[in-house]
Write a structure and sequence with these properties.
The chain contains 21 helices and 17 strands. Helix 1 runs parallel beside helix 6, helix 14 packs across helix 15 and helix 14 runs parallel beside helix 20.
Length: 583
């Protein structure tokens, strides 16, 4: 690497050091919101040919877009903003990244110390503004020759290491700059200043190369787990969000040895495109029917399940053993039911366990759940595809899971879309990469996250959103103007927040419609026209099937707006629940 003093200005020179070191630490994308105070950083990014830059005017959407890039690439992404409220607008995406333990690198430009607390324009207190939601904070001083370039480089290296740490997540560098912010012509030369990092300049590696420690499970702890698992007569293997294909294969191999039923969450990767007989795809319907076990043990691999009914049920059943395995050390035990907790990679835990577990015979529990699974599949399919052919939200989930192309991405928004996909997806389709913003489970930034996810996935992508999530993030449609692969955005328009009709709030007689469901009376054809997307309004199942089949083959963005009557949707869910309970 050669710093050629293209911009003989210390602000931009430090920024070049920052950008170069971030690239050496594995960063590819720099998501930049335009601003004056952040000009040195923007110029340095523009000047480095290895930096992939994304520019967007809305910091809130930009943060979520960066989050989507990180989900798909599993690499850190940098977000750059100017000072003031621009910085504060990143907070929702930082919370989501923190909850999901994703390595976002936040660079916010700031005023110098002499302007803080003076009423200077566009100045807020940015020091530790994100509180404990970031894993590391550093208030970068104004560039000066009194501070060595090594300080800049080691600060970047520490930040990236902390973003990948035991509890990974976002980190925040607050970069102060004095004017002039744009590089001014000068005869200054920084050769002597850079002499101490001469060796670094001739390399492509970080100044400080951190070694991430590997987690190991002691033999004694593994023997404890084996003893407990062998003693469990009626066990269930529960799978939440995991790390990908290697985890999936390891879990399936362990399940074959244990011969336990698998309750797999929609985000696990085992819910779609997997027809293994041990996977109980309709487990949530079975729970609705009043499942009572017997269960004396649970092995929970990965993150939290979408199904609230699982947590209600298992709290009542109180199995003697509840073993949980997660890579991080955090509790993840809202029921306070976990009896043995392993901090480990899922695949490592499974591979250690499999050779030492004796093969088990299928239990009556597994056979009963398999029978119930088939019955529930028949009931739900018949309920969804009735004689009137009108499209429903459950039908959308079923049809997408059945017809989504191989090697696709699927982003599912919060509230009803992810719940319906968890309930009504069929395993008969293709295995695809599934993601959702289930950290804080908000409806903000869903379009932006889906767009970033699709960008880095480099494959066709389908996103399912409710109407309020769509409205919330309209600005982010600009990210989808020129996709290189088909992007299908399915909007379930039931004219408001349908989920509240399934919650205790629905019992409120005064103000429920206005204050909870919040009807908006808007359709989205003009939004599609504004951004030059293809668009189709959908009312029947044949219309959806045909439109979706066409959209996933069209290399552009298509909005499919599915009209759904809120009251009809509620009654449909209620009637299905009655059928299931009468099993």
């Amino acid at each position: 690497m050669s710093l050629k003093n293209k911009f003989p200005d210390l602000n931009t020179f430090w920024s070049e050091l920052i950008v170069e070191e971030l690239l050496r630490c594995g960063v590819e994308y720099f998501c930049v919101a335009p601003g004056s105070r952040s000009a040195p950083l923007a110029i340095a990014i523009a000047a480095n040919p290895r930096a992939k830059a994304v520019v967007h005017f809305d910091e809130r959407g930009l943060g979520f877009y960066a989050l989507g890039l990180t989900v798909a690439s599993k690499k850190p992404t940098v977000v750059v903003t100017t000072s003031g409220s621009a910085c504060a607008n990143l907070f929702p995406s930082i919370i989501e990244a923190s909850k999901k333990k994703l390595p976002l690198i936040i660079l916010t430009a700031d005023r110098p110390p002499e302007l803080r607390g003076t009423g200077a324009n566009q100045t807020i207190d940015q020091v530790k503004i994100f509180g404990d939601y970031v894993r590391f904070f550093f208030d970068m001083p104004c560039p000066t020759l009194e501070i060595s370039p090594e300080t800049v480089l080691t600060t970047i290296d520490q930040a990236v290491f902390r973003a990948h740490g035991e509890i990974g997540g976002p980190v925040h560098l607050n970069c102060m700059f004095r004017e002039p912010l744009a590089p001014a012509p000068t005869k200054r030369n920084f050769s002597s200043y850079l002499h101490s990092i001469k060796t670094w300049k001739g390399q492509r590696t970080p100044y400080t190369d951190y070694v991430i420690p590997q987690l190991e499970i002691s033999d004694a702890a593994m023997q404890d787990a084996i003893h407990i698992l062998q003693s469990i007569k009626n066990g269930i293997l529960v799978v939440g969000k995991i790390g990908g294909k290697e985890d999936e294969e390891a879990i399936l191999a362990l399940a074959q040895k244990l011969n336990w039923p698998i309750f797999a969450d929609i985000t696990s990767g085992l819910r779609l495109g997997h027809t293994e007989s041990q996977i109980i795809h309709n487990f949530e319907h079975i729970l609705t029917a009043g499942f009572k076990g017997p269960i004396d043990g649970v092995l929970h691999l990965g993150g939290r399940l979408t199904s609230g009914l699982w947590y209600q049920t298992i709290k009542k059943l109180q199995p003697r053993h509840y073993i949980m395995v997660l890579k991080h050390p955090l509790r993840n035990d809202s029921n306070h039911i976990v009896t043995l907790r392993f901090q480990s990679e899922i695949k490592v835990f499974c591979h250690n366990l499999i050779p030492q577990i004796s093969p088990r015979l299928a239990t009556p529990l597994l056979k009963n759940l398999q029978r119930a699974n088939k019955i529930c599949e028949k009931i739900t399919t018949g309920h969804i595809f009735n004689s009137d052919n009108l499209i429903s939200e459950p039908a959308v989930s079923h049809l997408v899971s059945k017809f989504i192309p191989k090697n696709s991405g699927l982003f599912i928004a919060n509230s009803m879309p992810i719940r319906d996909m968890n309930l009504f997806a069929t395993p008969e389709g293709n295995p695809v990469r599934v993601t959702a913003n289930r950290g804080a489970s908000g409806i903000d930034g869903n379009i932006a996250t889906a767009a970033g996810f699709a960008k880095e996935l480099k494959e066709p992508c389908t996103a399912i959103l409710g109407d309020l999530a769509f409205l919330y993030d309209l600005n982010s449609l600009i990210f989808l103007q020129n996709p290189k692969h088909p992007f299908v955005l399915i909007v379930l328009n039931n004219n408001g927040g349908a989920i509240f009709s399934f919650l205790p709030a629905a019992d409120i007689k005064i103000g429920f419609k206005k204050f909870f469901t919040s009807p908006h009376n808007i359709t989205f054809a003009h939004a599609a026209k504004l951004f030059e997307f293809s668009y189709q309004a959908i009312q029947t199942i044949p219309e959806f099937t045909q439109a979706y089949a066409s959209a996933v083959q069209t290399p552009k963005t298509t909005i499919l707006e599915v009209y759904s009557d809120l009251n009809r949707n509620i009654k449909s869910h209620q009637n299905l629940a009655k059928k299931i309970r009468n099993l």
